[in-house]
Design goal:
binds guanosine-5'-diphosphate; seven-stranded mixed β-sheet; disordered N terminus; Spore Coat Polysaccharide Biosynthesis Protein SpsA, Chain A; binds magnesium ion
Protein backbone atom coordinates (compact mmCIF):
# COMPACT_ATOMS: atom_id res chain seq x y z
CA UNK A 1 0.00 0.00 0.00
CA UNK A 2 1.05 3.54 -0.70
CA UNK A 3 2.80 5.04 2.30
CA UNK A 4 1.18 8.10 3.70
CA UNK A 5 2.39 11.53 2.73
CA UNK A 6 1.95 14.36 5.17
CA UNK A 7 -0.16 16.43 2.79
CA UNK A 8 -3.42 17.38 4.47
CA UNK A 9 -6.56 16.23 2.74
CA UNK A 10 -9.37 18.70 2.06
CA UNK A 11 -11.71 17.30 4.65
CA UNK A 12 -8.98 17.14 7.21
CA UNK A 13 -8.67 13.35 7.54
CA UNK A 14 -5.92 13.02 10.05
CA UNK A 15 -3.03 12.97 7.59
CA UNK A 16 -0.83 15.42 9.44
CA UNK A 17 -1.45 13.95 12.82
CA UNK A 18 0.62 12.26 15.50
CA UNK A 19 3.60 11.13 13.40
CA UNK A 20 5.06 9.42 16.46
CA UNK A 21 2.05 7.20 17.01
CA UNK A 22 1.71 3.91 15.14
CA UNK A 23 -0.07 4.24 11.80
CA UNK A 24 -3.30 2.35 11.22
CA UNK A 25 -4.81 0.72 8.16
CA UNK A 26 -8.55 0.08 8.40
CA UNK A 27 -9.66 -2.71 6.07
CA UNK A 28 -13.34 -2.68 5.04
CA UNK A 29 -14.58 -5.73 3.11
CA UNK A 30 -17.49 -4.75 0.90
CA UNK A 31 -19.84 -6.87 -1.15
CA UNK A 32 -22.72 -5.11 -2.93
CA UNK A 33 -22.64 -2.31 -0.38
CA UNK A 34 -23.78 0.48 -2.73
CA UNK A 35 -26.66 1.37 -0.43
CA UNK A 36 -24.52 1.58 2.70
CA UNK A 37 -20.90 2.38 1.81
CA UNK A 38 -21.38 6.06 0.92
CA UNK A 39 -22.83 7.07 4.26
CA UNK A 40 -20.38 4.78 6.05
CA UNK A 41 -17.41 6.56 4.41
CA UNK A 42 -18.95 9.95 5.23
CA UNK A 43 -19.24 8.92 8.87
CA UNK A 44 -15.74 7.46 8.92
CA UNK A 45 -13.93 10.42 7.34
CA UNK A 46 -16.07 12.82 9.36
CA UNK A 47 -14.81 11.12 12.48
CA UNK A 48 -11.17 11.02 11.30
CA UNK A 49 -11.23 14.73 10.52
CA UNK A 50 -12.78 15.84 13.81
CA UNK A 51 -10.45 17.24 16.40
CA UNK A 52 -12.99 17.78 19.16
CA UNK A 53 -13.69 15.62 22.18
CA UNK A 54 -15.15 12.17 21.69
CA UNK A 55 -18.76 11.33 22.39
CA UNK A 56 -19.59 9.24 25.42
CA UNK A 57 -18.31 5.68 25.10
CA UNK A 58 -16.12 6.64 22.14
CA UNK A 59 -12.60 7.95 21.72
CA UNK A 60 -11.07 10.74 19.67
CA UNK A 61 -9.33 10.08 16.35
CA UNK A 62 -6.46 12.29 17.53
CA UNK A 63 -5.43 9.44 19.83
CA UNK A 64 -4.33 7.46 16.78
CA UNK A 65 -1.50 7.95 14.33
CA UNK A 66 -2.13 8.23 10.60
CA UNK A 67 -5.21 6.27 9.51
CA UNK A 68 -5.56 4.85 6.00
CA UNK A 69 -8.75 3.21 4.79
CA UNK A 70 -8.64 0.25 2.42
CA UNK A 71 -11.94 -0.88 0.92
CA UNK A 72 -11.80 -4.38 -0.54
CA UNK A 73 -14.52 -4.74 -3.15
CA UNK A 74 -15.33 -8.43 -3.31
CA UNK A 75 -16.52 -8.48 -6.93
CA UNK A 76 -19.66 -6.44 -6.27
CA UNK A 77 -22.02 -6.15 -9.20
CA UNK A 78 -23.50 -2.88 -7.97
CA UNK A 79 -21.97 0.61 -7.73
CA UNK A 80 -19.85 -0.08 -4.62
CA UNK A 81 -16.52 0.57 -6.37
CA UNK A 82 -17.75 3.73 -8.14
CA UNK A 83 -18.93 5.21 -4.87
CA UNK A 84 -15.55 4.55 -3.25
CA UNK A 85 -13.67 6.06 -6.20
CA UNK A 86 -15.87 9.17 -6.13
CA UNK A 87 -15.23 9.55 -2.44
CA UNK A 88 -11.50 9.20 -3.11
CA UNK A 89 -11.66 12.08 -5.59
CA UNK A 90 -13.63 14.17 -3.10
CA UNK A 91 -10.96 13.48 -0.48
CA UNK A 92 -8.20 14.76 -2.76
CA UNK A 93 -7.33 11.86 -5.10
CA UNK A 94 -3.68 10.97 -4.49
CA UNK A 95 -3.77 12.02 -0.86
CA UNK A 96 -7.15 10.60 -0.11
CA UNK A 97 -6.17 8.15 2.64
CA UNK A 98 -8.60 5.92 0.84
CA UNK A 99 -7.61 3.01 -1.34
CA UNK A 100 -9.76 0.57 -3.27
CA UNK A 101 -8.73 -3.02 -3.89
CA UNK A 102 -10.94 -4.86 -6.37
CA UNK A 103 -11.15 -8.62 -6.47
CA UNK A 104 -13.31 -11.29 -8.04
CA UNK A 105 -16.09 -12.41 -5.68
CA UNK A 106 -14.75 -14.95 -3.19
CA UNK A 107 -16.47 -14.27 0.18
CA UNK A 108 -15.89 -12.10 3.21
CA UNK A 109 -12.98 -14.17 4.53
CA UNK A 110 -11.15 -14.02 1.21
CA UNK A 111 -11.71 -10.26 0.94
CA UNK A 112 -10.47 -9.58 4.46
CA UNK A 113 -7.42 -11.76 3.83
CA UNK A 114 -6.52 -9.84 0.67
CA UNK A 115 -6.90 -6.53 2.49
CA UNK A 116 -4.96 -7.56 5.58
CA UNK A 117 -2.03 -8.79 3.48
CA UNK A 118 -2.08 -5.66 1.32
CA UNK A 119 -2.22 -3.28 4.30
CA UNK A 120 1.00 -1.70 5.57
CA UNK A 121 -0.05 0.21 8.69
CA UNK A 122 1.77 -0.52 11.95
CA UNK A 123 -1.61 -1.66 13.21
CA UNK A 124 -4.15 -3.26 10.87
CA UNK A 125 -7.82 -3.36 11.79
CA UNK A 126 -10.74 -4.83 9.89
CA UNK A 127 -14.31 -3.67 10.34
CA UNK A 128 -17.69 -4.27 8.71
CA UNK A 129 -18.42 -1.78 5.94
CA UNK A 130 -21.76 -0.92 7.55
CA UNK A 131 -19.82 0.45 10.57
CA UNK A 132 -21.91 -1.65 12.94
CA UNK A 133 -19.06 -0.88 15.32
CA UNK A 134 -18.65 2.92 15.16
CA UNK A 135 -15.22 4.22 14.13
CA UNK A 136 -14.69 5.93 17.49
CA UNK A 137 -14.05 2.47 18.90
CA UNK A 138 -10.82 2.14 16.88
CA UNK A 139 -8.61 3.77 19.54
CA UNK A 140 -9.77 1.06 21.96
CA UNK A 141 -8.15 -1.50 19.67
CA UNK A 142 -4.99 0.54 19.07
CA UNK A 143 -4.59 1.02 22.83
CA UNK A 144 -4.82 -2.73 23.31
CA UNK A 145 -2.29 -3.29 20.52
CA UNK A 146 0.30 -1.28 22.46
CA UNK A 147 0.53 -4.23 24.84
CA UNK A 148 -0.94 -7.18 22.88
CA UNK A 149 -0.25 -8.46 19.39
CA UNK A 150 -3.88 -9.23 18.60
CA UNK A 151 -6.98 -7.34 19.81
CA UNK A 152 -10.41 -8.94 19.37
CA UNK A 153 -13.40 -6.64 19.51
CA UNK A 154 -16.15 -8.21 21.61
CA UNK A 155 -19.86 -7.46 21.60
CA UNK A 156 -20.13 -9.35 24.89
CA UNK A 157 -18.97 -7.16 27.79
CA UNK A 158 -17.66 -8.20 31.21
CA UNK A 159 -20.65 -6.52 32.91
CA UNK A 160 -22.99 -8.90 31.08
CA UNK A 161 -24.06 -6.46 28.35
CA UNK A 162 -24.48 -8.24 25.04
CA UNK A 163 -24.55 -5.94 22.03
CA UNK A 164 -25.68 -8.79 19.79
CA UNK A 165 -29.14 -8.34 21.29
CA UNK A 166 -29.91 -5.87 18.49
CA UNK A 167 -29.72 -8.73 15.96
CA UNK A 168 -32.87 -10.42 14.65
CA UNK A 169 -33.94 -13.50 16.65
CA UNK A 170 -32.98 -16.09 14.01
CA UNK A 171 -29.47 -14.66 13.73
CA UNK A 172 -29.05 -14.78 17.49
CA UNK A 173 -30.15 -18.41 17.61
CA UNK A 174 -27.79 -19.40 14.81
CA UNK A 175 -25.06 -17.39 16.44
CA UNK A 176 -25.43 -19.40 19.64
CA UNK A 177 -25.08 -22.72 17.83
CA UNK A 178 -22.10 -21.40 15.90
CA UNK A 179 -20.40 -20.05 19.00
CA UNK A 180 -20.82 -23.31 20.92
CA UNK A 181 -19.27 -25.35 18.10
CA UNK A 182 -16.51 -22.83 17.43
CA UNK A 183 -15.50 -22.49 21.08
CA UNK A 184 -15.43 -26.27 21.63
CA UNK A 185 -13.59 -27.26 18.50
CA UNK A 186 -11.72 -24.25 17.11
CA UNK A 187 -11.13 -21.14 19.18
CA UNK A 188 -11.20 -22.15 22.84
CA UNK A 189 -12.93 -19.81 25.27
CA UNK A 190 -13.55 -16.41 23.61
CA UNK A 191 -16.69 -14.44 24.48
CA UNK A 192 -17.45 -13.43 20.86
CA UNK A 193 -15.63 -14.95 17.90
CA UNK A 194 -17.69 -13.24 15.18
CA UNK A 195 -17.40 -9.56 15.99
CA UNK A 196 -16.37 -7.95 12.69
CA UNK A 197 -13.92 -5.62 14.41
CA UNK A 198 -10.45 -6.96 15.11
CA UNK A 199 -6.97 -5.47 15.21
CA UNK A 200 -3.46 -6.82 14.74
CA UNK A 201 0.09 -5.58 14.81
CA UNK A 202 1.32 -5.70 11.22
CA UNK A 203 3.69 -8.64 11.75
CA UNK A 204 0.95 -10.71 13.39
CA UNK A 205 -1.56 -9.76 10.68
CA UNK A 206 0.75 -10.75 7.86
CA UNK A 207 1.74 -14.00 9.55
CA UNK A 208 -1.82 -15.04 10.45
CA UNK A 209 -3.66 -13.98 7.31
CA UNK A 210 -1.03 -15.57 5.05
CA UNK A 211 -1.97 -18.88 6.71
CA UNK A 212 -5.73 -18.38 6.37
CA UNK A 213 -7.47 -20.79 3.98
CA UNK A 214 -11.16 -20.29 4.87
CA UNK A 215 -12.85 -17.83 2.50
CA UNK A 216 -16.25 -17.82 4.20
CA UNK A 217 -17.51 -15.97 7.29
CA UNK A 218 -15.91 -18.73 9.39
CA UNK A 219 -12.50 -17.09 8.84
CA UNK A 220 -12.74 -15.21 12.18
CA UNK A 221 -12.69 -18.50 14.08
CA UNK A 222 -9.76 -19.68 11.95
CA UNK A 223 -7.74 -16.55 12.70
CA UNK A 224 -8.34 -16.92 16.46
CA UNK A 225 -7.33 -20.59 16.21
CA UNK A 226 -4.13 -19.63 14.39
CA UNK A 227 -3.35 -16.78 16.81
CA UNK A 228 -3.52 -19.21 19.72
CA UNK A 229 -1.40 -21.84 17.97
CA UNK A 230 1.22 -19.27 17.03
CA UNK A 231 1.31 -18.04 20.61
CA UNK A 232 0.35 -14.40 20.02
CA UNK A 233 -0.82 -12.34 22.98
CA UNK A 234 -4.54 -11.71 22.61
CA UNK A 235 -6.58 -8.90 24.19
CA UNK A 236 -10.37 -9.01 24.36
CA UNK A 237 -11.73 -5.50 23.84
CA UNK A 238 -15.40 -4.75 24.62
CA UNK A 239 -16.78 -2.53 21.85
CA UNK A 240 -20.05 -0.92 20.91
CA UNK A 241 -22.01 -2.55 18.12
CA UNK A 242 -25.48 -2.19 16.72
CA UNK A 243 -27.14 -4.27 14.06
CA UNK A 244 -27.46 -2.32 10.82
CA UNK A 245 -30.23 -2.88 8.33
CA UNK A 246 -29.37 -4.20 4.91
CA UNK A 247 -27.34 -7.24 5.99
CA UNK A 248 -25.65 -9.00 3.06
CA UNK A 249 -25.92 -12.34 4.81
CA UNK A 250 -28.63 -14.71 3.59
CA UNK A 251 -29.18 -17.67 5.85
CA UNK A 252 -29.75 -20.77 3.70
CA UNK A 253 -29.35 -24.50 4.42
CA UNK A 254 -26.31 -24.60 2.12
CA UNK A 255 -24.66 -21.86 4.14
CA UNK A 256 -25.22 -23.73 7.41
CA UNK A 257 -23.66 -26.89 5.98
CA UNK A 258 -20.69 -24.96 4.65
CA UNK A 259 -20.19 -23.31 8.04
CA UNK A 260 -20.16 -26.65 9.87
CA UNK A 261 -17.76 -28.12 7.32
CA UNK A 262 -15.39 -25.13 7.61
CA UNK A 263 -15.43 -25.26 11.42
CA UNK A 264 -14.73 -28.98 11.35
CA UNK A 265 -11.71 -28.73 9.10
CA UNK A 266 -9.90 -25.76 10.68
CA UNK A 267 -7.99 -27.70 13.38
CA UNK A 268 -7.17 -30.42 10.84
CA UNK A 269 -5.84 -28.02 8.21
CA UNK A 270 -3.63 -26.28 10.74
CA UNK A 271 -2.53 -29.25 12.85
CA UNK A 272 1.10 -28.76 11.83
CA UNK A 273 1.28 -25.01 12.36
CA UNK A 274 4.22 -24.42 14.72
CA UNK A 275 4.37 -22.06 17.66
CA UNK A 276 6.62 -19.10 17.01
N1 LIG B 1 -16.15 -9.41 0.74
C1 LIG B 1 -17.32 -9.82 1.16
N2 LIG B 1 -17.83 -9.20 2.16
C2 LIG B 1 -19.03 -9.60 2.58
C3 LIG B 1 -19.74 -10.66 2.01
N3 LIG B 1 -20.85 -10.78 2.69
C4 LIG B 1 -20.82 -9.82 3.63
N4 LIG B 1 -19.72 -9.10 3.53
C5 LIG B 1 -19.24 -7.96 4.30
O1 LIG B 1 -19.18 -8.34 5.63
C6 LIG B 1 -19.55 -7.23 6.44
C7 LIG B 1 -20.71 -7.57 7.30
O2 LIG B 1 -21.78 -7.89 6.48
P1 LIG B 1 -23.26 -7.73 6.89
O3 LIG B 1 -24.06 -8.02 5.68
O4 LIG B 1 -23.48 -6.40 7.55
O5 LIG B 1 -23.43 -8.93 7.91
P2 LIG B 1 -24.13 -8.98 9.33
O6 LIG B 1 -23.93 -7.67 10.01
O7 LIG B 1 -23.41 -10.11 10.01
O8 LIG B 1 -25.54 -9.29 9.03
C8 LIG B 1 -19.82 -6.08 5.48
O9 LIG B 1 -18.63 -5.33 5.38
C9 LIG B 1 -20.16 -6.81 4.19
O10 LIG B 1 -19.91 -6.03 3.05
C10 LIG B 1 -19.15 -11.35 0.92
O11 LIG B 1 -19.67 -12.29 0.35
N5 LIG B 1 -17.93 -10.87 0.52
MG1 LIG C 1 -23.94 -5.80 9.47
Amino acid sequence: MRRMSSAPSPDGANTAESPSKPSVTLVLPAYNEARRIGSALDELFGYLGRKGPAREGGRSASEMGLVEVLVVDDGSDDATADIVLKRQQANGGEHANLELLRRPHAGKGAAVKAGMLHAQGDYIIFADADLATPPDQMPLLTDALATSEVALGSRVHPDGTDRRKSQPLHRRALGKVFHTLAALWVTGPVPDTQCGFKGFRREAAHDLFARQVIGSIVFDAEIIHLARKRGYSIAIVPVQWSDKRGSRMRVRPGLALGVVYDLFRIPLIHRKVPKR
